[in-house]
Design a protein that fits this description.
about 425 residues, Amino acid/polyamine transporter I, 16 helices
Length: about 425
Amino acid sequence: MTQPHLVRRLGLFDATMLVMGGIIGSGIFLNPAEVARHVSTPALIVGAWLIGGAIAIAGAFVYAELAARRPEVGGQYAYLRDAWGPMPAFLYGWSLLLVIQSGGMAAVAIIFAHYLIELTHWPVADGAVAGGALALLTAINCLGVRAGSNVQSALMVLKILAIAALVLCGLIFAGPAAAPVAAPYVAAGGLGAALTPVMFAYGGWQTSSFVAGEMRDPRRDLARGVLIGVAGVVLLYTAVAFTCVYVLGPAGLAETHTPATAVMRLALGDTGATLIALGIAVSALGFLSQGMLTTPRVYFAMAEDGLFFRGVAEVNARTHAPVVAILLQGAMAIVIALSGSYGQILSYVVSVDFIWFGLTGAALFVFRRREGGAWFEAPGHPVTTGLFVAACAAVVAATVYNNLADSAVGLLILAAGVPAFLYWQRKKARA
């Protein structure tokens, strides 16, 4: 009897929406203020988002070529495994489950719950709403990749509309802020610190590669989707940063904790604030939907390689979805959301995540040396690839420097994966 397997049902539009959905969560509605607290001139505030966008575009070139070379389920996990061996790949999946994805999803779920309760005035705790949202998305994605993708694409379109409304209402209906009295000197360390929230907001384009095994033509559609999606996000993010600076001014932006709400309140009053709260809730839900669709495929690939519980590699015969892997991701995110321990995790996501970005970028040098060219090649390689790897190293260094204690926790969790890998490797050898 033939074992059930993953099926290829996704195309270019799905890939593009997955790329954008993996990047755009709630960060862009909040992080412009965090940037303004580190750099206080309009040019540097918007410039930080452009620098982050340039790094993201360089990364998109790298991931597009890797997608053309390795159109396999697991995406980035497969790139790391084939370039550097099973241990780094396992540690990547380990950090996804315990730090990067589950912690990030739990935090975004709490943000979704906060805004939904603010809109509906439900007398329930944030954790309960967050857990319920995660449980619902877990169930939807267990129905199959097509059902999960349709929900994710619809939410992504709504996100784009919410961002467009923020930009247009801010520029058209809210007047410009008063010009700053003087432009103070900003040290390089301030710009480095400003890039941490920027790069956190830009992170996530790699998650679309996790479902390469379920795309009809992953070599072409995933590569194109990465390039189109990242370019679209850079445009949207820069527009939001410019709008926030234009309407609130550097000082006003730095003082607020909810810049998108402040802009919309100036533009349309309380109605504007309500509308953007709805937009942020939808954006957060869309990010959760994308994560629940894509990331379980990494745990599935790990299990197929014999480096995780074998049951995680099981595929449902009716829906052709890796149901056990999806349930694992959902359960982990729900536990963190209900425990309330998500807040600290966000502080060290960047330091761990960008280690893997850098190693994945460096993997392209390995594949070029081993295999030669591919149908799509990263423009400007090796310069653009080298700059991307160097930028990732700089982001990690800046994050560790500015958040030493929290970064140390993330790195310790990563290191704890080494004995776990050795256990699974010995178990695989005995099998």
